[in-house]
Design goal:
The protein is mainly alpha-helical. The chain is built from 9 helices and 2 strands; from the N terminus they run αααααββαααα. The two termini are 13 Å apart.
Length: 241
């Protein structure tokens, strides 16, 4: 810029979801709501396994019954202490990298998903196993909310961007960890199979919905411009060196 005039522009905040992913994310949220609603209507106020549950639960339990120790360890990943610690770590990582939207997503979405499951859906649906409310699975909700948060954060990371292969591996790892927790819960007899399906839907849908809302609340990015009009006027009048 002539005469050494420089104007610093604050970089536009990066959206959580790439623009091309907003519509698919919204459709996935709608799908998660539909799955949860259909399962709730099908199994509400029941205290026994449905036909699908009976088949899936028996297969999982027969295949993994000899691994009680590892199963209990895996189930603890979805417990409150582990979920709280992992959520705090995600929030801290986002704050350190000044990714404010990511910090808001992790800090809001995971607690919101767990609260929705434990204090709204479980009492409303009223499904139980061994006398305990079971629909949706709270452990599954929590780990899938954490996994979905990681996927969103890795979908559009701040620069310098991680190599695509690294991001794919990290996403695969997060999804794999999220998947083994509900398998452990079913194998231990703590949940029916469809409880975990609903938990995965609630956790994923909640994260995507909050990510969309955060992106919607962001101010639109300003297009890059040359010298401001007032600077040009000042130059013309000879007021600037």
């Amino acid at each position: 810029m002539p005469w050494g005039i420089q104007r610093q522009r604050r970089p536009a905040a990066r959206p959580l979801l790439p623009p091309g992913m907003h519509r698919p994310a919204a459709l996935l949220v709608a799908g998660c709501v539909a799955v949860t609603a259909c399962l709730a209507l099908a199994f509400g106020h029941q205290a026994s396994a449905g036909r699908l549950d009976a088949a899936m639960d028996a297969r999982i339990q027969s295949a993994l019954s000899s691994y009680q120790g590892p199963l209990h360890l895996l189930s603890q990943l979805g417990g409150l202490p582990s979920v709280a610690g992992l959520t705090a770590a995600l929030v801290l990582a986002c704050l350190v990298t000044r990714r404010w939207g990511g910090a808001a997503l992790a800090g809001l979405a995971v607690p919101a998903a767990v609260t929705l499951t434990e204090f709204v859906l479980k009492p409303l649906v009223g499904r139980s196993i061994h006398g305990y409310a079971s629909f949706p699975s709270g452990h599954t909700t929590a780990v899938f909310a954490l996994a979905a948060t990681c996927v969103v954060l890795l979908a559009s990371p701040p620069g310098p961007r991680l190599p695509r292969a690294v991001r794919v591996l990290l996403v695969a790892g997060a999804v794999l960890v999220a998947a083994v927790v509900p398998v452990a819960m079913v194998a231990l007899g703590f949940h029916y199979f469809t409880d975990t399906v609903a938990g995965a839907a609630v956790g994923t849908g909640t994260v995507l919905l909050i990510a969309l809302l955060i992106d919607l609340a962001r101010p639109p990015a300003r297009a890059s411009r040359g010298p401001a009009a007032e600077d040009i006027a000042a130059l013309s009048a000879g007021r600037l060196p």
